[in-house]
Structure to design on (232 residues):
């Protein structure tokens, strides 16, 4: 995977440009959109690593957008930061209720905002630590190894990244285009059926450990970790 991708939803052009510039300078890939509707459109195609939402947006406000993001199975785990001129306690509570992870009050310092983005990305990335477990399978994200009951499972890099993604988001179903985006990267053009080929390879590799049903097909959607295995 390449650098983290941040989606910014802000209607004021000046602030939008400032955010694009300052977040981009910190090494993140930034996409900016002017309203909630464009953000939802954008989210149909790709899942960013973090979303920065301005509270006051035309038509659908930031709180409503945050709620929708949290209620969508594809986007519910994406870290959210709310950006707003409102600093009152009750408003903060309202945005935390909507599932927002952090809150930055305008006028903001770009440096502080970047520190918060970094902290949130680190937290979400390290939430499950370097070892991801499911049933009797352990995936080590640092050693790049997969073990079942102590024996090494040999996976090719793409299958490894697919498995890692499913283990990091045990409750989430991914569409083929989301998998292409997250595993292959947005800049690469690959046919969606490629995903099926690699999921099949992953299942074959896991077959001798009786884990070939670990990755489940969700009809009409894509793939997810089989919930019956449970997360250790
Ligand atoms: Ca605004």
């Amino acid at each position: 995977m390449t650098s983290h991708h941040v989606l910014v939803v802000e209607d004021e052009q000046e602030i939008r440009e400032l955010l694009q510039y300052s977040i981009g300078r910190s090494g993140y890939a930034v996409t900016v959109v002017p309203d909630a509707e464009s953000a939802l459109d954008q989210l149909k195609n790709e899942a960013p690593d973090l979303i920065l939402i301005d509270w006051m947006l035309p038509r659908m406000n930031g709180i409503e957008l945050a709620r929708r993001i949290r209620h969508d199975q594809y986007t519910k785990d994406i870290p959210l930061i709310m950006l707003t001129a409102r600093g009152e306690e009750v408003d903060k509570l309202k945005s935390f209720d909507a599932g927002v992870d952090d809150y930055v009050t305008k006028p903001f310092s770009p440096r502080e905002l970047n520190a918060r983005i970094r902290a949130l990305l680190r937290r979400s990335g390290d939430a499950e630590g370097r070892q991801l477990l499911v049933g009797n399978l352990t995936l080590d994200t640092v050693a790049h190894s997969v073990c079942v009951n102590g024996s090494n499972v040999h996976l090719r890099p793409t299958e490894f990244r697919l498995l890692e993604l499913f283990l990091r988001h045990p409750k989430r179903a991914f569409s083929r285009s989301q998998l292409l985006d997250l595993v292959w990267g947005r800049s690469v053009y690959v046919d969606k059926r490629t995903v099926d080929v690699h999921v099949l390879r992953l299942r074959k590799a896991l077959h001798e450990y009786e884990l070939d049903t670990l990755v489940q097909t969700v009809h009409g959607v894509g793939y997810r970790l089989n919930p019956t295995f449970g997360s250790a």
Observations:
- Residues 11-12, 54, 56-57 surround calcium ion (CB under 6 Å).
- The CA atoms of residues 28 and 66 lie 21 Å apart.
- The chain is about 40% helix and 20% strand.
- The first helix runs from residue 13 to 25.
